[in-house]
Design goal:
The protein is mostly helical. 90% of the residues lie in helices and 0% in strands. α1 runs antiparallel to α2.
């Protein structure tokens, strides 16, 4: 298996964990600014994983 695909899958898992953590914090009543940080991290992780998947397709 291509290592770039493995890294992309791990980044997607981290993104999912970040969303779940943001939802948990929102349920606890955390300020929206803290929740926005986790969701911004999620978007960044998904963007990096998309770039890695695109790169792995170009290399293959």
């Amino acid at each position: 298996m291509n290592p770039l695909v493995v890294v992309a899958v791990l980044l997607n898992a981290l993104a999912a964990a970040s969303v779940l953590f943001a939802l948990t914090e929102a349920n606890k009543g955390a300020p929206i600014s803290e929740t926005a940080v986790y969701l911004t991290v999620t978007v960044g992780l998904l963007a990096v994983s998309l770039l890695l998947l695109t790169g792995s397709m170009i290399v293959a």
